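Tokens as discussed.
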């Protein structure tokens, strides 16, 4: 395979893993990033979950009802502020169309296939590079306040096991054995444990992987926002991109700029990606907190009732949640973050009263949940974006698929499933 000059745009988890996969193939890779550092966008303080088992599209049966109820509940995780744009309305229409059970099942399978490939790839990259990111391989526990009927439990277990997951149903005693800290509030909970899943700090991984690649020839150019595209042959081929004061030519360009990819490629390509805002709170748990009766969570936990995601990351705990369709508004709404803390404290008891780090990020969300990876109708222009709720989980597999596509090599995944044109995506 001929080594090519490749420009990757965006140094979030998707751009950096893509740059890593392409550099490993012998390409000359330049990574352009608008911000002064990598992982300063949505990859900065996400929930930390590395979960293939819970990887599922947002568009599912029941979502329309939940969304309607949310309009009258200020504390609901979901919030929608119409921005009057045709793009948002079109996206919502597609989202609702994808809430059918058959479509949900097909899209979920596609996401899980990518996630499984991705987590295997992530472990291989971590072993090869030695990058440290507080990886905790203790599974993911879904907490339920009430036990569902036995038939529902059996169906859920069967569907997870059919996909190859090591899943186990837990009664309240087993849940407490897994998560002793839940005993503090004394609320009984049932649980679904998937042992294959994990959690880890996305930002540390991105920073570490970037440094590792820079030491091996990757050219990283921070503070370089791509402002314009130069196409030739009547708009059929991408020749160069422009950043302030500089023009960059390459054989291939990969756009991995998260929610900003849409605006950057307008009007050349229309991407069905909308920002969905979420929040996180990071709280340090020092040694003495354990003595004061605040043992940290042992593994990644999802509270089914509130959709709160809890992940122990090194000596801190990360709380994440909420889904707001409110355009590109990146402001941190403190009341939403306080809501996350209250939801956590109702389960695990009071967090130590030192300063917490509050954050908001925009998930680049497609209407069917599946990211867009691969070539486009514009020669030389490749996409790796739209990873929505699970970009950290899906990153290394998406990078592998992109590298395979660029090489014209068949891989473990069907490229058509992740094509920009939804008509190409299989419904199997
Ligand atoms: C609250 C929350 C919790 C989440 N929890 C999880 C989780 O537990 N597990 C999971 O798997 N996923 C999770 N996610 C999703 C995950 O964080 C995202 O899918 C992922 O970070 C997207 O990565 P990205 O590289 O596409 O985007 P980003 O990280 O946003 O990176 C895009 C980069 O492009 C740069 N850029 C933008 N415009 C330009 C330009 N013009 N020129 C050059 N560079 C540009 C930006 O500065 C940015 O650095 C969560 C997201 C949120 C918001």
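Sequence:
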């Amino acid at each position: 395979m001929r080594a090519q000059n490749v420009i990757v745009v965006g140094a979030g988890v998707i751009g950096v893993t893509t740059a890593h996969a392409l550099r490993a193939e012998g390409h000359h890779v330049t990574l352009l990033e608008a911000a002064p550092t990598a992982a300063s966008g949505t990859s900065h303080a996400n929930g930390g979950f590395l979960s293939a088992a819970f990887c599922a599209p947002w568009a599912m049966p029941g979502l329309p009802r939940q969304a309607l109820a949310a309009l009258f509940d200020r504390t609901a995780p979901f919030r929608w502020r119409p921005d009057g744009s045709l793009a948002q309305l079109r996206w919502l229409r597609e989202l609702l169309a994808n809430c059918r059970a058959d479509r949900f099942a097909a899209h979920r399978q596609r996401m899980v296939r990518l996630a499984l490939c991705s987590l295997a790839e992530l472990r291989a990259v971590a072993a090869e590079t030695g990058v440290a990111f507080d990886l905790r391989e203790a599974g993911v526990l879904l907490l339920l306040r009430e036990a569902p009927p036995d038939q529902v439990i059996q169906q859920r277990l069967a569907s997870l096991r059919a996909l190859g997951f090591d899943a186990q149903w837990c009664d309240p005693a087993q849940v407490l054995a897994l998560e002793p800290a839940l005993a503090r509030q004394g609320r009984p909970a049932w649980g679904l444990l998937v042992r294959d899943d994990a959690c880890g700090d996305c930002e540390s991984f991105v920073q570490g992987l970037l440094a590792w690649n820079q030491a091996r020839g990757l050219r990283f150019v921070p503070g370089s926002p791509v402002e314009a595209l130069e196409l030739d042959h009547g708009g059929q081929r991408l020749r160069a991109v422009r950043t302030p004061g500089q023009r960059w030519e390459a054989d291939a360009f990969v756009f991995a700029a998260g929610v900003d990819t849409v605006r950057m490629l307008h009007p050349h390509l229309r991407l069905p990606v909308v920002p969905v805002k979420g929040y996180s709170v990071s709280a340090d748990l020092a040694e003495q907190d354990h003595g004061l009766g605040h043992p940290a969570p042992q593994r990644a936990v999802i509270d089914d009732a509130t959709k709160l995601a809890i992940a122990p990351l090194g000596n801190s705990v990360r709380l994440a949640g909420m889904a707001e369709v409110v355009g590109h508004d990146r402001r941190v709404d403190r009341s939403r973050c306080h809501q996350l803390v209250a939801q956590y404290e109702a389960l695990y008891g009071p967090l130590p009263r030192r300063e917490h780090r509050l954050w908001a990020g925009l998930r680049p969300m497609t209407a069917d949940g599946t990211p867009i990876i691969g070539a486009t109708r514009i020669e030389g222009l490749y996409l790796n974006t739209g990873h929505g709720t699970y970009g950290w989980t899906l990153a290394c597999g998406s990078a592998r698929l992109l590298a395979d596509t660029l090489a014209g090599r068949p891989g473990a995944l069907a490229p058509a499933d992740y094509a920009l044109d939804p008509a190409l995506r299989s419904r199997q």
